[in-house]
Design a protein that fits this description.
Elements: E1 6-14, E2 20-25, E3 38-39, E4 41-44, H1 51-63, E5 66-78, E6 88-99, E7 105-106, E8 109-115, H2 128-136, E9 143-146, E10 149-150, E11 153-154, E12 158-161
Parallel strand pairs: 1-6, 5-9
Antiparallel strand pairs: 1-2, 1-4, 2-3, 2-8, 5-6, 7-8, 9-12, 10-11
Length: 162
């Protein structure tokens, strides 16, 4: 059976001094699969859009800022992650510079500046604890991982760097 994932972006916006990251606290909709969790910003890619354009659009829509410098930190295949078991393929970016002032909330929840050193203390998807250290580490190589989910829970995690 061919792999036909939903393609999406996930971005982590850094403060100018690189000590904080802008996260969304998904606390606005009771029907949200992510309710109560913290996450980066992002979403599904539109037809005719490349992943960079998607990341810029999603950051603009969710935080009302413009990305001026970002780097691809990795890719993650999430088989079975979707609400109904759909497969997802995510492109994970670090937004190192931006213009504008971020919103404090949007339709999905509150936007909060969090110390990078504290991220793993927050309520996150189980799998985020595995890949987030790779997003913020000093290794310049991108990571490429696979993280299957079953019934809303991470099953395993494996990655490589090139």
């Amino acid at each position: 059976m061919p792999y036909t994932p939903i393609v999406a972006t996930l971005g982590y916006v850094l403060s100018a001094d690189r000590t904080q990251v802008l996260l969304i606290h998904r606390n606005a909709r009771s029907d949200d699969q992510h309710l109560g969790k913290y996450n980066g910003l992002g979403g599904k890619m539109d037809p005719g859009e490349d992943v960079v354009a998607c990341m810029r659009r999603e950051i603009r829509e969710e935080a009302d800022i413009e990305c001026t410098h970002m780097s691809l930190r990795g890719t993650i295949s999430w088989p079975g992650f979707g609400k109904h078991g759909e497969d997802w393929l995510g492109f994970v970016f670090l937004i190192e510079r931006f213009s504008g002032t971020p919103l404090t909330s949007n339709a999905e929840g509150s936007l909060e500046w969090i110390d990078v050193a504290r991220i793993l203390e927050l309520p996150l998807w189980d799998g985020d604890r595995h890949f987030l250290p790779l997003v913020f580490d000093a290794d310049p190589r991108a990571f490429h991982g696979v993280m299957p989910y079953r019934d809303g829970r991470m099953v395993s995690w494996d990655y490589s760097r090139i």
